Amino acid sequence: MGADDRVDLSLGDLRSVADFALQAAQDVLEIFERAHPEDRRPREAIEAARAFALGAKRGKILRDTALAALRAANEVESDAAAQAARAAMLAASAAYLHPLAKATQVKHILGAPAHAARALELESGDHQAGTDYLKRCVDRISPAVVDVLLRYPPAPSGGGRVGELLRLLDSELRKAG
């Protein structure tokens, strides 16, 4: 791999990305918890992401809680709850954004809000709910996260509706950045 294939990332960059991702996951956690009030796995993933964003070490707790939130997403019957759990999983895994100049890495940056937007669409039955949510994400994203995003190629194709939402958010942020 050549130097042109790598992206410079600091620990501060990773903390900023994790903070943005956990905000999105927090926005839809209630969707999951209404369906499964006894299941704390997505909440624990968000809490681990928050601890990292606030200065905790990047370690096993992030990996473990991300995998647990993914298992929760795969075990629920509600599609909206599953998307909310996936947002939590991506919040915990945002700390593992790789310094590789690959479009797939954009999912680590914008995946949580894309899944949150989809959760809101599924809950409301209205695509506009997801689009409106992404507009709010554009308004609250920090310049530091936009700076990280712009180091990567645009979001990849595919991924169904979540992929469409991811590309919509990516496009809007690149225009603003």
**Beta-strand content estimate:** under 5%
First-residue to last-residue Cα separation: 28 Å
**Shape field:** globular
Q: How would a crystallographer describe the biggest sheet? A: none
Radius of gyration, in Å, reads: 15 Å
The helix-strand sequence is HHHHHHHH
- Helix segment count? 8
Structural class: mainly alpha
Low-confidence spans: pLDDT under 50, at least 5 residues?
none
Task: Describe the protein.
The chain is mainly alpha-helical and 177 residues long. The chain has one domain. The protein contains eight helices and no strands. Helix 2 packs parallel to helix 4 and helix 3 packs antiparallel against helix 4. The longest helix has 25 residues. The two termini are 28 Å apart. The mean pLDDT is 95.
List keywords for this structure.
mainly alpha; single chain; about 180 residues; about 70% helix; 8 helices
